[in-house]
């Protein structure tokens, strides 16, 4: 969590500075931002909740640093981005702790269940969001 506020605040400034001064860095930054934008679709739609759930899923590439990069690219408000990252990291830690304490057999079953839930999570959130919007 230590670098998250700095990434949220200064990533775009640092990236534009590097892009102006080095064409190779500009190329790699374009690749990095393209990948982050690809992952940012659901987060852009749900903002705080989307970022928190993205960071909370304990899969490779879904941690606080990636969440901070996405928040910076989406120009999320500073405290919203940092708090969503923090809550996501805490939830991921609790989840991994739970899986470790369950033992191998139950952790494998729970891990498979979590994979299924995380796969359909965005679809479920969209349905809930549509039903809330239609009731208003």
From TrEMBL:
<dbReference type="Pfam" id="PF06695">
    <property type="entry name" value="Sm_multidrug_ex"/>
</dbReference>
<keyword id="KW-0812">Transmembrane</keyword>
<keyword id="KW-0472">Membrane</keyword>
<keyword id="KW-1133">Transmembrane helix</keyword>
<protein>
    <recommendedName>
        <fullName>Small multi-drug export protein</fullName>
    </recommendedName>
</protein>
<feature type="transmembrane region" description="Helical">
    <location>
        <begin position="106"/>
        <end position="128"/>
    </location>
</feature>
<feature type="transmembrane region" description="Helical">
    <location>
        <begin position="48"/>
        <end position="71"/>
    </location>
</feature>
<dbReference type="GO" id="GO:0009507">
    <property type="term" value="C:chloroplast"/>
</dbReference>
<feature type="transmembrane region" description="Helical">
    <location>
        <begin position="78"/>
        <end position="100"/>
    </location>
</feature>
<dbReference type="InterPro" id="IPR009577">
    <property type="entry name" value="Sm_multidrug_ex"/>
</dbReference>
